[in-house]
Amino acid sequence: MATSKIDRLMLDHQLLDAGQEQRLRRARRTAAVVGVIAIAVFVFSILQMVWLQHNPPQHPQVTDSLMQ
Amino acid sequence: MAQAATHDHHDEHHDEHHEHQNFFQRWVMSTNHKDIGTLYLVFSLLMFFIGGSFAMVIRAELFKPGMQLVQPYFFNEMTTMHALVMIFGAVMPAFVGLGNWMIPMMVGAPDMALPRMNNLSFWILPFAFALMLSTLFLPGGGPAGGWTMYPPLSLQSASLAYVVFAVHLMGISSIMGAINIIATILNMRAPGMDLLKMPVFVWSWLITAFLLIAVMPVLAGAVTMLLTDKYFNTHFFDAAGGGDPVLFQHVFWFFGHPEVYIMILPAFGIISEIIPTFARKPIFGYKAMVFAIASIAFLSFIVWAHHMFAVGLPLGAEIFFMYATMLIAVPTGVKVFNWVATMWGGSMTFETPMLFAVAFVILFTIGGFSGLMLALVPADFAYHDTYFVVAHFHYVLVTGAIFAIMAATYYWIPKWTGHMYSEFWGKVHFWNSVVWVNVLFFPQHFLGLAGMPRRIPDYNVAFANFNMISSIGGFLFGASQLIFLGVIIHCVWFSKKKATDRVWEGAKGLEWTLSSPPPHHSFSVAPVIHDEELAHGHVED
User: Fold this and answer.
1) Catalytic residue among B34, B59, B168, B307
2) At what angle do helices B200-231 and B265-279 cross, to 10 degrees?
3) Could you tell me which residues come within 8 angstroms of residue B433 by beta carbon, excluding any fewer than 6 positions away?
4) Active-site residue (options: B7, B33, B59, B82)
């Protein structure tokens, strides 16, 4: 079954064989998932600090509990 | 190989596109992993010399006791900028460049999975560093509170916003690079290239990329909070407002310690490629090497507070972090043992890459041992913030990471350019580097043990002799790197000696099945993998 050129995935202007193209589609999904994880880590690292900012009594306990 | 012939024919067609590109399209708009790898490596070399020039200022000022050449604030700017430039500008981009060049060729992929993002992740870097280096010329001066940016000192800097924005850009670049590497390795491998058949360098980069994803956003979060503390009236790290400056140290080192491993794990991978080639034996304990890298990466997340023993941690914490840190010596010891066991009984030859690799094994181990000394809480109270620490991390990062990058350059540059470098001048570069780097850093152990604090422009006359020796070593080590530059320039533009496809007699792996230099596009059609072609085709240990 011929695939039109416009639907074909290209890497650095090179057309890929069907197997490579399938692997590339999977790779893009993996990249999206990893990107979302990176953003989540960034947001979490700030949110926990904001939480501590609004809960000053917990501040020393949390710092210490990291250590125990 | 029939498959290779098909693939070459395929590439001829696509290389026409590349031939019609002008300089701007080729280098600025490039989406080719080899070109972007070259850009990273050239950028890294430039930053290596800029960061090195800052080090020369530091060693010139410390040549004699007393204030000699520069003002104290400028000295502090130099120590801070030297670290930031070397870590984020020289070492990390060099490894990303090596990864870009080699990973797709090693796993039989046509390119990185996301070529346009690859281009963006490189081109962010020059702007980030232009921004950061420009602070040296601003009225308030550049950052001078150390690369760790501890508050409240860093909050006094007029250039904090510039530096934070630059760090954000570097972080975005690193994260995009890591995403690309993970997606490429997990998905783009040629059929038959199982995970446990991948070269150790590819494994080391896969694990490093996960480290980057886990910790670079944390650094971004920490410096964002610094920024809001300075400009938006928050008090995350301000004790007067209910915040805690020590909390910044925890968050920073949660990033900072894995960052140390981000700078050394790819080096482990490089050395694990080079030693088997020149020992003409498969690596001893392939699986153990991979698991050791993974173990080191895991342990790097639970040792961060060993950088903070002196801030007054609870005793239980100090004991936990001390033992966890010492535990890292186990997988690291496995790696050193396996490198030595690979060499044992091998038909060894000592071309320049192998010389750097052997020097790496010996000198990195010295850095590892001084790290063990620093892991001991009672000892660390004496060593903390002394030149002993400076000696330790320079043995790990210069004779470790940078020697590995140099070894990799000599190892792969014939493949990249199609020309052999000058073996004579490579060896001249090696022997000068290995002698002067020890003259530079070994006396700093004695200075630290004698109590000389780090990050000061002046010192007690009792420290004069070792400082003078160290500075002489520094100047000559710096000058030796001009030989490195000369060897590279000669190899790229003037060398008449053609490299063969395999380049090194004992080299194994898919990358060596390609021509030297490899075609602009390689593996558009997935290669047929023959296990005997791979360094680890038959993994049994």
Assistant:
1) B307
2) 160
3) B403, B406, B477, B480, B481, B484
4) B82
Q: Where are the alpha helices (DSSP H) in B62-159?
A: 72-84, 92-107, 115-134
pLDDT tens string A5-36: 556 777 777 777 778 888 889 999 999 999 99
Q: Is B332 a catalytic residue?
A: yes
Q: How far apart are CA B462 and CA A4, in angstroms?
A: 78
Other CB atoms within a 10 A radius of the CB of residue B493 amount to 9
pTM of the model: 0.93
- Phi, psi of A14, rounded to the nearest 5 degrees: -110, 135
Mean pLDDT of B176-192: 95
- Tokens encoding B77: 């700017």
State how far the alpha carbon of B48 is from the alpha carbons of B44, B119, B258, in Å.
6, 21, 22
To the query of whether residue B257 is one of the catalytic residues in this protein, the response is yes
Partner-chain contact A14 B110, CB within 8 Å: yes
Among residues B11, B61, B77, B111, the one annotated as catalytic is B111
ipTM field: 0.82
Chain B residue numbers with beta carbons less than 8 Å from the beta carbon of A51 are none
Under an 8 A CB cutoff, do B182 and A37 touch? no
Beta bridge partners of B419: B498
> Most A CBs within 10 Å: which of B19, B21, B181, B188, as the mutation test of the A interface?
B188
B309 to chain A, minimum CA–CA distance in Å? 11
SS3 B341: helix
> pLDDT (tens digit, 9 = 90+) per residue, B88-137?
999 999 999 999 999 999 999 999 999 999 999 999 999 999 999 999 99
Q: CA B52, CA B478: separation in Å to the nearest integer?
A: 7
Q: Does B221 contact A60 at a Cβ distance shorter than 8 Å?
A: no
Count how many domains chain A has: 1
3-state SS, B217-241, equals: HHHHHHHHHHHHHHHCCCCCCCHHH
Helix or strand (DSSP H, E) at B55:
helix B33-61
pLDDT in tens, B387-423: 999 999 999 999 999 999 999 999 999 999 999 999 9
User: Structural domains in chain B?
Assistant: 34-533 (1.20.210.10)
State the number of CA atoms in the 13 A half-sphere of B479 facing the CB: 10
Contact at CB, B220 and A19, closer than 8 angstroms:
no
Q: Which domain range does residue A53 map to?
A: 5-65
For the stretch B57-97, pLDDT in tens is 999 999 999 999 999 999 999 999 999 999 999 999 999 99
Q: Nearest-CA distance from B208 to chain A in Å?
A: 14
Q: Look-up: residue for tokens 């482990």?
A: B268
User: Active site includes B500?
Assistant: no
**CA distances from residue B98 to A1, A61, B102, B398 in whole angstroms, order as listed:** 39, 44, 6, 17
